[in-house]
Amino acid sequence: MDKWLRSTWFIRILSLFLAILMWASVSEESTEGTDPNFLNGSSTDKEMAENVPVDIKLEDEELVVTGVPQVADVMLEGPTSQVAPAARQQNFSLYVELNGLGAGVHEVRIQHSGISNQVQVNVEPKTVEVTIERRMSETHNISADFINESQMGSEFEVGEADINPSTVEVTGAASVLSEVAVVKSIVNLAGVDTSIEKRETPVKVYDEEGNELNVIVEPASVTVDVPVSRSKKEVPVAFRAEGEVKDGVKVDKITSSVEKATIYGPKEVLDDINQVSGSIVDTEGLDETTSKDVELEVPNGVVSIEPETVEVKIEITNE
């Protein structure tokens, strides 16, 4: 033993061994409170992916489903490198698995796919109550629903729409079909000033309260013809002389190149007008028969008049 202690190589080996023990002890203490993700060169994150579409997995085409939300929110927690792109790009999917379930009411879990196993996933809502029913079909007549009629000129009148085809097949769950109150072809009249011909319009299905129902409509659109006309009326024109002629003469009569004008406007306004009589003819200083162009007065409530100007003849005679 004394010989080993006096050996230079023994002392060196023993010192090295003790140094390794001390290094290991210090290293263990320094790493006890360290985040493992730091050692792995990564960090954790938590992000919410909102309004992620929810798909329905159901192969039986004779069944229809209600109660599945269109979208759900997903909380993702895990490595930033996994969470950030998943939340922002939504490169994953949500779905409810309904294959194997029969008609009736079921509580099912919203599942996910395409997300790394390193990420913790929480879907809200986690489960949903769905109703599975047999698919049914009914035939319904279509009526025209005119929208934005107030954005037409007030002089235009809209006739009855001709819809082709006049019926559609509505398919859905029996409980939904029982709520069908009306099937409408939506016709937008904004800015329309001529008759509508062969316009393709969407078909919508509503309940009694005006809520659109989630059903399949075949065909989904129809063509419509809608007669649009301008309300008009032909009335006599009369003129009023204004201004003093020269001494010794007088206005004998005023005649026009046209006897009647056509006025356009709302029908209820036109019904009360029987003559355009407010047009003024300036006779100031006249001493002989003269012809002039006169602008016709547009009665209150009338949108337009044709012609806008007429030629009048002012016949002057001696007093």
UniProtKB/TrEMBL annotation:
It comes from the Bacteria. Pfam families: YbbR. It comes from Salimicrobium jeotgali. This is YbbR family protein.
